[in-house]
Amino acid sequence: MAKIKIIKAGMLSTIQDLGRYGFQEFGMPVSGAMDHYSMKLANFLVGNNLNSAVIEATVIGPEIFFEADCYIAICGADMNAKLNNESVNMYQTISVKSGTTLKMGAVKDGFRTYIAFSGGIDVPLIMNSRSTYLRGKIGGHGGRQLIPKDELNLGKESSTITQKKIDEKFIPIWSENLVCRIIAGPEIHKFKLTGINTFLNSTYSISLESDRMGYRLNGERIAHRSSPDIISAGIAFGTIQVPGHGEPIIMMADHQTTGGYAKIANVISADLPYLAQMKQGDTIEFEEIKLEEAHELLQNQNKVFEGIK
Amino acid sequence: MNTYLPLGDSAFIVKFGEAISEETNAIISSYSKQLIKLDVKGIIELIPSYNEILVVYNPMEIDYKILVQLLKDLENTISINDSMERELIRIPVCYDEKFALDLDFVSEHTELSIKEIIRSHSEPNYLVYMLGFTPGFPYLGGMNKQLSSPRKVNPRTKVEVGSVGIADSQTGIYPIESPGGWQIIGKTPLKLYAPLSRENFLLKSGNFIKFYPIDIAEFEEIEWRVKQDKYTVKRELIPYNG
Questions:
Q1: Three-state SS for A249?
Q2: ipTM score of the complex?
Q3: Contact A238 B8 (CB under 8 A)
Q4: What are phi and psi of A303, to 5 degrees?
Q5: Is there a contact between A266 and B137 if contact means CB atoms under 8 Å apart?
Q6: Is any Cβ of chain A less than 8 angstroms from the Cβ of B38?
Q7: pLDDT of residue A309
């Protein structure tokens, strides 16, 4: 069976697929890749089902030794990847021979990188998903981040892998100052008009207290009409809650399924990958768009995958 | 009349008014059941809460206008009679001082004897309004008001899994070990959240639960059987009394 070995784990490397769906009504977070777009591009390049399990590397990438031949693809943040000390390109199918070492360094831009392996990473399905839910210590490889000496099996690769390159027009350019598009609501009535103006006209920065669960933003306080509290209700990836202190928190991949603070807006799906590629200190400005436009943008982003399941 | 609001581009909120009531919960349960029966392509899952259902959908598989119309049409077909029967789950709780770390405090605060507290806590059928906060955690309604007790001034850094507690006018069970400020009055050997078992979650929105007292010996016996995945949870159907 094809195997890879972790020599160095990097800062935070976990196994993720597109998430654990079907259990949110029980309080189970979805988890999954923070940047769905880069993750799917990587799987696409190695002939995998787009939902196959990959390694999500954060800020400093892992060092991996290959004990079998396979194909890989690296998409997301540029971590200066090298195979046996020779630079390799991102956003293309790479053939790797047994005995090779992949080395990755610190991000040059972006924040998270996805390494897909032909056949996908073969770890047990926990509640229908291979995603790691770190807080709950389940999924992925033993419910935790990867550490040196971890050995991972790969699944059976597709019989029709062709070496591909992603067209330049589909390759994202990461930004440290993002204009993040949102759909307004559903509880804008809990905010003063001045508060809503503040939200749409201020520049917020990503604080240290940001992780896979959520990004706490620093910036101008957003005024509520009275209480910031609402009756607990379901929330989503990209939901922006504003607690009493007035600074927004954006729900990310490991977000809790329900929340009790007024929701001012929700980041559009097409912009979530760009958000997932940001780090502490980067800035965000919010721009409201309509639902139709958000769906159009998402459709355009997915055009690159057209024709495959 | 429900309200329909988008939560971003991949979820819609169906809002059933502002009340928190057993009736609203029955309507939500009924609505969810019917929606799931329709097996709509593009609907990924539903997250029920006190007075909303969050409909998670894939906008690339279903047009949102079609989805909203479908949700609106469904509203007219719902009647509480559809969920005439509800499921009641009996939950064994050991209120022995070994597990009931704060029972003395609750007794002092409520001015009830320990016996009275146990009787009062195990008397009602509690409604599971929703699950959230952590996997398997039930938001319960129906605790007798006389048991109300404030949270601990100094929360514990570690509350054991299965601990049964009281915080203000709420009672609940810890599905996982975590820090917590609830007054702990007992422990259940049942698992509310078992990610590696056949049955992952004990409870679901719309269920009723009833606590029943057990002694330490029975606690250990059930605990052992649960570990072997050999315990069958006592579930029964009860009529819905509008």
A1: strand
A2: 0.96
A3: yes
A4: -55, -35
A5: no
A6: no
A7: 47
